[in-house]
Amino acid sequence: MNEKLKMSMIKSGRAVYNALPVLAGVVLLVSLANALIPKSAYAVLFSKNVFLDSVIGSAVGSVLAGNPVTSYILGGELLKQGVSLIAVTSFIVAWVTVGVVQFPGESILLGRKFALLRNILSFAFSIIVGITTVFILGLI
Amino acid sequence: MSEKSYTGLYFLLSVIAVYLIAGFFRPEIVVSSLQFSLKVMQNIAPVFVLVFTLMIVIDYFVSPKIISSYLGKSSGVKRWFIAITGGIISTGPIYMWYPMLRELKEQGVNYGFIAAFLYNRALKPPLIPVMLYYFGLKYVVVLTIVMIIMSIIQGVIIEKIEDGGFL
Fold first, then answer.
1. Measured between CB atoms, does B139 come within 8 Å of chain A?
2. A123 to chain B: which residues are within 8 Å by CB?
3. pTM of the model
4. What is the mean pLDDT of each run of 10 residues along chain B (167 residues)?
């Protein structure tokens, strides 16, 4: 086997091996968060105030983790219950872009300052995306 | 083992400790969490193989020179296009991509690119039919465009902060 390829395999294997405990920890944390937070309880958190709800939507979406499909289904249900589209959009966007549960893993593998900055920015952006999307939808 | 590797191990041990504490009060929650974790691990195994293969390919073919010409600041809009496309087509949970992104970071990619890549992980073509069902075509198109634009804005902000020596 080509020596360079062998070295690449060893190096990548070592990087994956080192990342394994972090990935296993994140999977276990995400599963525990999913089991501990009942999904039926989300709707009561919203106040029907559009701007406050978009912050609440982002906050709830940031804490929860899992397949984005779950956020679409929950978002659809929240809409039916009268929660604003801005709040639901903020919720869906934060669900996939902000990771409170994954933060320790992101922090260890990509750097604490970066993980903190990226998650804070993504939280703020999820509210901006919610407002902008609904504003544009109102125009077209 | 490096200090960083120990950090990962300490993190896993902390999570296990949380499970032990939770198991003391709510054993049924711990059992269902472990079953869910096992299912997740089975689902992400193929992604893990994909990420490992990509890491080998990157290490073998991609040099710091290629990084700077395709993913560095000098590449202009090309890097944002690659971050957006890479983020959208990458599959599996977000955390599966951290080791590969760390590898790219060590090769010289800046944090702005990584942030844009991670932001676009939110856009998944296979999930669009579900989103269409709940929110309609107009909403999906507008949200997708807004999110792509925001990913670049976030990337630029983080790049500037990194250039300022704050990361």
1. yes
2. none
3. 0.84
4. 70 93 92 91 84 85 76 84 89 85 89 94 81 91 95 96 88
Chain A contacts of B127, Cβ < 8 Å?
A: 68-69, 72
Closest CA to B134 of A95, A61, A76: A76
Q: How many structural domains comprise chain A?
A: 1
User: What is the Cα–Cα distance from B39 to A30, expressed in whole angstroms?
Assistant: 12
By the 8 A CB rule, do A113 and A122 touch? no
Which of A11, A16, A73, A80 is most worth mutating to test chain B (most B CB atoms within 10 A of its CB)? A16
Distance from CA of B119 to the nearest CA of A (A): 6
d(CA A19, nearest CA chain B) in Å: 6
Tens digit of pLDDT for each residue in B2-37? 555 688 889 999 999 999 999 999 999 999 999 999
Q: Which residue of A has its CA nearest to B28?
A: A35
Rounded to 5°, the CA angle B46-B50-B51 comes to 115
The predicted complex's ipTM stands at: 0.84
Q: Residues A52, A54, A59, CA angle at the centre, nearest 5°?
A: 95
B21 touches chain A (CB under 8 A): no
Closest CA to A91 of A34, A136, A38, A129: A129
Q: Which of A122, A95, A78 is nearest to B155 (CA)?
A: A122
Closest C-alpha among A98, A108, A137 to residue A25: A108
Q: In this predicted model, what pLDDT tens digit does every residue of B30-48 receive, in sequence order? A: 999 999 999 988 888 888 8
Residue type for B117, please?
Answer: F
Cβ–Cβ gap A16/B55 under 8 Å: yes
**How distant, in Å, are the alpha carbons of A6, A124, B29 from that of A102?**
32, 18, 20
**Do B6 and B12 touch, CB atoms closer than 8 A?**
no
Domain range for A34: 3-139
